[in-house]
Write a structure and sequence with these properties.
The protein has about 230 residues and is mainly β. The protein has four helices and 15 strands.
């Protein structure tokens, strides 16, 4: 165990976990909730797409404020099936929520595992490539009548293939948790930013990306712009 991890574990052991928080992930595009197989979603005037599957890993969840709470557990979020993470954390005042879209590299190197990392979740490639971090499947359409399979399976953990991104969001108002309190925090993933964040991505011209490499790394630059917190907690 590293020195940093030992310090974190010692701090966590000293805390009292007496408040409950639910992180509720909501997926939107074109200013509306994503409905599977809705073909009206637009990336550009001449590019439309539909979503049939949206899955991704969230890990290293951290609440920052007068106290710091860290949960290293990996969670698989899947649109329409598993969109909530339930946590018991210390009561107190928190200013920011941070997490990683992705997984620690050690998990990629540990082979097939259980729970949310079980290969049956259809997110594990091979021992060599590790896990898919972000999976988007559906269909694309162009104004010229062209259409086809949309399949983005983004992953990679080796030095020149890393795509996991740290996300940090400030609460609109401080999150104040009293002992025994229950709070729900709505975390929005805006898929529009997947297509037009720091990088411009085209479902028509880049419909299939299913292995680690420069395209996955380029697109992962948009991850940090995809999330925001809805309203006050």
């Amino acid at each position: 165990m590293t020195l940093l991890l030992s310090i974190v574990c010692s701090c966590m052991q000293a805390q009292v976990f007496d408040a409950n928080v639910v992180l509720d992930f909501e997926h939107v595009s074109n200013n509306k909730a994503i409905i599977k197989n809705d073909s009206t979603l637009k990336v550009a005037p001449d590019e439309r797409y539909l979503v049939s599957k949206l899955k991704y890993y969230i890990s290293q969840i951290c609440f920052k404020g007068e106290k710091v709470f860290i949960d290293p557990t990996p969670y698989l979020i899947e649109d329409g099936r598993n969109q909530q993470i339930r946590l018991t954390i210390p009561s107190g005042r928190y200013e920011r929520l941070a997490f990683m879209l992705g997984l620690d590299s050690l998990l990629h190197c540990s082979g097939a595992q259980s729970g949310d990392l079980d290969p049956l979740n259809d997110m594990f490639w091979t021992w060599n490539n590790g896990y898919v971090i972000f999976k988007l499947e559906g269909k694309y359409f162009s104004s010229g009548g062209r259409s086809g399979k949309l399949e983005h399976h983004l992953g990679g953990y080796r030095e020149d293939q890393k795509i996991s991104q740290a996300i940090e969001l400030k609460f609109p108002e401080p999150l104040i948790l009293a002992k025994g309190e229950n709070k729900k925090i709505k975390v929005i993933l805006d898929l529009d930013k997947y297509w037009s964040g720091k990088e411009v991505v085209s479902p028509v011209h880049e419909p299939v990306i299913t292995k680690p490499g420069k395209n996955a790394v380029r697109i992962s630059g948009n991850f940090s712009e995809m999330f925001y917190l809805k309203d006050k907690p």
